[in-house]
Amino acid sequence: MSKARLNIAALAKLLKKNPHLKLKQSGGPPLPSGKEEKAQGGSNSYSRAAGGRRSDLGNRYFRSRWEANYARYLNLLIAQKQILAWDYECQTFYFESIKRGVRSYTPDFKVTLSDMSHEWHEVKGWMDDKSAVKLKRMARFYPAEKVTVIDDAWFEQAYKTGLDRCIPNWERGA
Fold this sequence. Notes:
Layout: H1 8-17, E1 52-54, E2 60-62, H2 65-79, E3 83-88, E4 93-94, E5 104-105, E6 109-113, E7 118-123, H3 129-141, E8 147-150, H4 152-161, H5 163-166
Parallel strand pairs: 7-8
Antiparallel strand pairs: 1-2, 3-6, 4-5, 6-7
């Protein structure tokens, strides 16, 4: 299988030229009929994220708009055969020898690549101290696991290239 990947700009251009392309639903049973449920904020007291279930994503709960939008982007990559699958918060890594502070980490997405290998994608609006410690400990305790941080620069690029307008149900800020 080809290891070539489309960047955001190339995906946006591809979707604009091929409006008939449909996104494949990943990771869940058929969608129930009815309106999307939205929760009030996230579990973090400082979060302005729109946590809640998304009907277009298998009625899964996501902690933020960015995580839900990134899941939609991963569905696009599946439809384009760039990746095989993704899963959300499916594994927790424990830092056994740590006695204080951050003792575990659950990445946002496990992304299964075309060659059956996987990597972890972490969506971060900002990098607070606790998140930085988790990522450092992950690198130290699990050096074979690849973690990619999807940050505000990724989303800025998605908006600049028009990717957000090419993916159905993309959520914009309040």
